[in-house]
């Protein structure tokens, strides 16, 4: 009987969303700052950009860092939004408060995604990866290599090494097996996320992202307000 395999989600004209810098929300991060997020390459061979299935999921991710009771404080933002240039231009406000000036430099954008993505929520994928990464997971302090380990925010070495491994996998024809990762937000399994890998020739953004359109984030955006309420934050009106 064949063993488990990497479960793959094929994105065929899937609508995805991202909040990012107003100049180009889908542009790759500066290579100097790559390598710090959940599905980034620890060796910085490739960059990763993050997207979500809905604007609400984007806002839930970006605002989670502002929760006043967030363990570890507000030292890092969540997976799919922030990069160091953003942080320099639009500093993060005090915990529990959403600063309108911080939001002012952001654009909410949607695009059409294509490609093949490793579904790390799948039992088959986890079983396939476990023999390779169990020792690393235990060394990093995890109880096992399982779904919960892949959803932990820190330490990120585990998911980053998984990302590097997935990036290198090839089909029988010698083509990349996957273009990134399909995963669930730590803030709710119904919030589906995408991590898109950079491939040679991908400039200024991934060739898997087409027809991007967007607008500046508005303080009266219903999805933004829902996320603010979810995280018990304060959004100044003036």
Structural commentary:
This protein has 7 helices and 6 strands. The chain is an alpha+beta fold and 238 residues long. It has a domain at 10-119 and 178-230. Strands 1, 2, 3, 4, 5 and 6 form a 6-stranded mixed beta sheet that branches. Strand 4 and strand 5 form a beta hairpin.
Largest sheet: 6 strands, mixed
* Secondary-structure element series: EEHHHEHHHEEEH
Question: Low-confidence spans: pLDDT under 50, at least 5 residues?
Answer: 72-82
Beta content comes to 15-25%
| Structural class assignment | alpha+beta
- What's the overall geometry? globular
Helical element count? 7
Q: Tell me the radius of gyration.
A: 18 Å
CA(first)-CA(last) distance: 64 Å
Share in helix: 25-40%
Mean pLDDT: 87
Overall strand count: 6
How does the SSE layout of this entry go?
Elements (H helix, E strand, L loop, with lengths): L7 E14 L26 E5 L2 H9 L20 H6 L10 H4 L2 E14 L3 H17 L7 H5 L5 H12 L11 E6 L2 E10 L11 E8 L5 H9 L8
Parallel strand pairs: 3-4
Antiparallel strand pairs: 1-3, 2-5, 3-6, 4-5
Summarize the structure.
This protein is of the alpha+beta class and 238 residues long.
Index terms:
single chain, 238 residues, 7 helices, alpha+beta, 6 strands
């Amino acid at each position: 009987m064949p063993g488990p395999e990497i479960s793959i989600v094929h994105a065929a004209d899937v609508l995805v969303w991202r909040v990012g810098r107003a100049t180009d929300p889908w542009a790759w991060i500066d290579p100097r700052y790559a390598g710090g997020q959940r599905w980034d390459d620890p060796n910085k061979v490739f960059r990763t950009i993050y997207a979500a299935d809905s604007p609400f999921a984007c806002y839930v991710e970006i605002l989670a860092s502002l929760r006043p009771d967030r363990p570890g404080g507000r030292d890092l933002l969540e997976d799919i939004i922030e990069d160091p240039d953003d942080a320099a231009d639009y500093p993060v406000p005090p915990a529990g408060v959403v600063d309108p000036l911080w939001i002012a430099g952001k654009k909410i954008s949607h695009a059409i995604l294509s490609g093949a993505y490793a579904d790390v929520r799948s039992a088959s994928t986890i079983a396939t990866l476990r023999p390779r990464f169990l020792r690393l997971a235990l060394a990093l302090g995890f109880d096992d290599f399982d779904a919960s380990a892949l959803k932990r925010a820190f330490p990120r070495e585990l998911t980053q090494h998984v990302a590097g491994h997935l990036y290198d996998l090839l089909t029988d024809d010698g083509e990349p097996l996957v273009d990134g990762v399909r995963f669930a937000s730590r803030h709710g399994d119904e919030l589906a996320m995408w991590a898109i890998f950079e491939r040679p020739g991908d400039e200024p953004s991934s060739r898997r992202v087409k027809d991007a359109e967007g607008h500046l984030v508005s303080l009266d955006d219903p999805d933004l307000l829902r996320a603010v309420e979810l995280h018990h934050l304060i959004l100044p009106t003036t």
